[in-house]
Amino acid sequence: MTSTIDPKTIGKPQHPRRHVRTLTGYLPETDASGKEKWPKGEEKVWKAGMRGLDKDVPDITKSFVNHVQTSLARQPYNLDELGAYQAAALSVRDNLLVNWNETQLNYTRKTPKRAYYLSLEFLMGRTLDNALLNLGLKDQYNDGVQQLGFNMEDILEKERDAALGNGGLGRLAACYLDSSASQELPVWGYGLRYQYGIFQQLISPEGNQLEAPDPWLEHQNPWELPRLDVSYEVRFYGHSERGNDGRAVWTGGQEVLAIAYDVMIPGYGTKTTNNLRLWESKPKRGFDLNSFNAGNYEGAVESSNSAAAITSVLYPNDHTLKQQYFWTAASLADILRRFKNTGKPITEFPDYAAIQLNDTHPTLAIPELMRILLDEEELSWNQAWQIVTNTFFYTNHTVLPEALEKWPVPLVEHVLPRHLQIIYDIVTVEKKFPGDRDRLGRMSLIEEGFPKQVRMAHLACIGSRKVNGVAELHSDLVKTTILKDFVEFEGVSKFGNVTNGVTPRRWLDQCNPQLSDLITKTLKIDKGVWLKDFTKLEGLLQFTEDKEFREKWAAVKQSNKERLAKYVQSTLGFTVRTDAMFDVQIKRLHEYKRQTLNILGVIHRYLTLKNMSAAERKKANRKVVIFAGKAAPAYYIAKLTIRLIVNVARIINDDPETKEYLQLYFLPDYSVSLAEILIPASDISQHISTAGTEASGTSNMKFCINGGLLVGTVDGANIEIAEEVGESNVFFFGHLTPAVEDLRYQHTYHPIPIEQKCPALAHVLNEVSAGRFGDGHVYEPLLNTVRQGDYYLLTDDFDSYIASLAMVDEAYLDRDEWIKKSIRTTAKMGKFSSDRAILEYAESYWNLEQTPVPSS
Ligand SMILES: *Cc1c(COP(=O)(O)O)cnc(C)c1O
């Protein structure tokens, strides 16, 4: 393919700015004191034309009916619930847009430093309820919709989750956007607009996970605004050569268009409404004319298909190099264009933009900014590197060696030839440790081997101003393991910690309205206050001795269990008993998260119950165990774990001797919306990763906020939760991080037979092998991960795990004491609001200031 594109135009707006003019009367002059001065009579014209915010029920019903009539072109006499959802959503969107416009205008006028959160995943869930809450229009909309003959709860159920993420990392990005807007911080998100989000999980009758596509855009998505005029060209392949002036020129290859879609992110109780910009890939207009001329129609269409394919799917647990570059190139071009509109010199870029890399997925932004500064802005290497290393910030999300991102050098060279040159030019390390070849090898951006690979975490670290982990323990591990050499090279002050948080709006007020009401009434503090100053929850402590309050607290939990049971009954047809303790583990299926430990523990409990006399069983704690989570489609062992859970459930739930005391469910298709039903219903939840493997976890926080207790290992944010709520309110078990390495060494070099080391576990494994839960052969590969090697240390932790579950039972049977623990837990969770976390990023990392929208 020959190119007609001047490389200088890459990353610049595709269309020259159209001639724009200001509506008469709009943008008043400001006088010296900053007061707006309107030309005579014009204010009226403007104000008459501009849509204001809906305030009361008649505004809302009017706008709803308007949208039915015009946007949806439906007749008012045959509107279904989906139509009602769409009309409600469109009218809410109008309100969001009023605030969104004011927010963006405010940023343009004040030109504050902005932060950009680059994340390949945003696990947003549903929007309507959150938008109503944040706008403060929930009651008004409930009434308005009611007046028109609909019920808000049913309408809310019609919305599909926006599931543009795999799990915790994507949900964290969503919580951070909510908190940024709520804290009036000028933060934009940048991501990809996947046509298909994370797959829908189905469970076959045999218990196998099946994956179905998630066509979430099937119906019109009212929450996004296509910006067809905001587009950039992104190049792949081709070649990079030196021009006469010695500068590199990258030409040829494939050019793809990135089109912007904007999603409004409203803050809670504030006008600030930030933006999440998602890119869609599209073939460049005009196709490849050479192919057409040669009569190669199919060839031309094929290349246009491959352009559209870039953003078509969110790959489970994986992203492609082309996705990563497409997204970072478009985002950077957009950020640079916005900066250039301020008229400041490029050397001041880091004073106006902080770019946060959510994991290593956006690391190509580092060589991409270098490329632009060197080849287009024609800066020197040192000038360019200075700008780059003051702009980027990198959040590490894992220290598991197998999860550290690497790209084969030949692939990078093929797809991004200029970037590979730049990566090879970033060899800052050699100067400091001349002669220390081992260290240079460890620190190199390129890992030796066949093929050689680019180590993205090293590139992200070297190219960033600061690096952080996501909980204290994890941040320490980053400094002492995977980036140890870099700490010695660059100084420890570059490395920090920001413990994750979750938004209390979604994870308390929206998902648990009864608890939220009870808290408001008890504290006698306006919800608008404590939802933003979450440490106010501490006021609940003084009510732990108030019996009436405790009964109300317990009644809310009971009601949430019944809501969950109703959901399971209506969607799956199972009858969950609600007079039992609810024990929940919901998260992606992964060996390090040890769902296997949990299911083997359930089997142990079942076998123990079977061995009891009827009289003994009567004294046992009744328990409902619930799992949910998706496994990566190619992750065989994780899928086998699901299969085992489903088949154990079949036997246990059908056993007349024990079913009163133990029930087990695997709920398919875990999602944000399912989490919102499960979490408020939980008495205890499991966060049982092998010590040192879970960077933080965020579902542990969600459960505790909702008064659920934890059983867990001394890992990730579990540790800080226990520090806050008190160790007596957390059920810890298992070996600690420093022991893990030695234990693994023993497994390899001095293995002890499992019958000797952990007879209880050996018995459980043998029962599974013997076919007690269906054909035992099926599970051999899973059981062998425990019997041989046992990398995740189940044989080391099983006994203490079972012992801690026994303590949970004992504690639960003391109802009064349990409820006190539950209240104390919620009361001390203030630290884990994502508002606290985002303010730490803003202050200690980005140097960002709150930029409230002036009230008009
Ligand atoms: C919070 C959340 C997660 C993260 O769960 P962890 O247990 O911390 O791994 C994953 N998926 C969804 C849908 C969530 O809401």
Under CATH at level 1, the class of the largest domain stands as Alpha Beta
Structural class, please?
alpha/beta
Present as ligands are:
pyridoxal-5'-phosphate
Can you summarize the main beta sheet? 9 strands, mixed
Count of β-strands: 26
Overall mean pLDDT stands at 93
The low-confidence runs, each spanning 5 or more residues with pLDDT under 50, are: 1-17
Q: What oligomeric arrangement do these chains adopt?
A: single chain
What would you report as the Rg, rounded to the nearest angstrom? 28 Å
Protein name: Alpha-1,4 glucan phosphorylase
Function: Allosteric enzyme that catalyzes the rate-limiting step in glycogen catabolism, the phosphorolytic cleavage of glycogen to produce glucose-1-phosphate, and plays a central role in maintaining cellular and organismal glucose homeostasis.
Keywords: Allosteric enzyme, Carbohydrate metabolism, Cytoplasm, Glycosyltransferase, Pyridoxal phosphate, Transferase
GO molecular function: glycogen phosphorylase activity; pyridoxal phosphate binding
Give structural notes.
With 856 residues, the chain is of the alpha/beta class. It folds into three domains: 92 residues, no CATH class; 334 residues, Glycogen Phosphorylase B (Rossmann fold, 3-Layer(aba) Sandwich), CATH 3.40.50.2000; 282 residues, 3-Layer(aba) Sandwich (Rossmann fold), CATH 3.40.50. The chain contains 36 helices and 26 strands. The strands form seven sheets. Strands 9-12-13-6-3-14-15-19-20 form a nine-stranded mixed sheet, with helices on both faces. The radius of gyration is 28 Å and the shape is globular. The N terminus is likely disordered. It binds pyridoxal-5'-phosphate. The site of pyridoxal-5'-phosphate has 13 residues, from helix 7, helix 27 and helix 28. Pfam families: Phosphorylase (PF00343). This is Alpha-1,4 glucan phosphorylase.
